[in-house]
Amino acid sequence: MPKQHEPDSMESMRIDKWLWAARFFKTRSIAKAAIEGGKVHHHNDRVKVSKEVRIGMELTIQQGFEKKTVVIKALSAVRGGAPIAQQLYEETQESIARRELHASQRKMHNLARPDHRPSKKDRRDINRFKQENVQSWSYHDE
């Protein structure tokens, strides 16, 4: 019978498997695609799918708008629940502050949008304004 590994008994494992076990990605193939797409870095260098990770390594992982810098605290070959997965890594304080800053900037940027779509009358007014200004500019060019 093969010997079962305890989550902390391993010395190293493939990065795609660790990212999947730590619940950064839903499947290993998605983790592999992210690694190949340059979304995972170690010491500001892109990593390969076969990269072996160890406890104490610092990784930068980009998912959508968010870019997290995490330190590996434990290794696990099995994918557990979210509370267990969160024990496998610790996000750095700089990373948390940077993500909160970017999130607040995105929220502020979204506040500049109008509350509603232009109505038919609003669109007519906009088109009339554009036509009047295009005609006035063409007279000045001659």
TrEMBL record:
InterPro entries: HSP15, S4_RNA-bd, S4_RNA-bd_sf. One of its GO terms (molecular function) is DNA binding. Residues 112-131 have a biased composition (Basic and acidic residues). GO terms for biological process: cellular response to heat. Transmembrane segments: none annotated. Gene3D superfamilies: RNA-binding S4 domain. The keyword DNA-binding applies. Belongs to the HSP15 family. This is Heat shock protein 15. It comes from Acinetobacter venetianus. The lineage of its organism: Bacteria, Pseudomonadati, Pseudomonadota, Gammaproteobacteria, Moraxellales.
